[in-house]
From TrEMBL:
InterPro entries: Homeodomain-like_sf (IPR009057), RD_transcriptional_regulator (IPR051839), Transposase_8 (IPR002514)
Biological process, per Gene Ontology: DNA transposition
Keywords: Coiled coil
Record carries keyword Coiled coil: yes
Domain of life, per lineage: Bacteria
The name this protein goes by in its record: Transposase-like protein IS3/IS911
Highest classification ranks of the organism: Bacteria, Bacillati, Actinomycetota, Actinomycetes, Micrococcales
Coiled-coil blocks: 58-85
Amino acid sequence: MPKPYPREFREDVVRVARGRDAGVPLRKIAADFGISETCLQNWMRQDDVEAGVKPGVTKTEADELRELRKRNRLLEQENEVLRKAAAYLSQANLRLGGSSK
């Protein structure tokens, strides 16, 4: 798993990369900050998404989606428990009702 960098660091690196002089490759900026060029490209792409420049899922949307999926799994589990309980109680009720007649 890639090591996490502080948000401020990522923002500073992206700002420097966007403000670089013509002819200075991203590879050089990335090396100066001790990260890979691919990492810098990913940060710049995510920055564009966050700014609404490019389509994609923002961090806030991704966090919300993750929480909603987690909540949905929990509700599905609760629903399954209730379904099984209803089936069990229905069977128990049939047995009790059938023996009293």
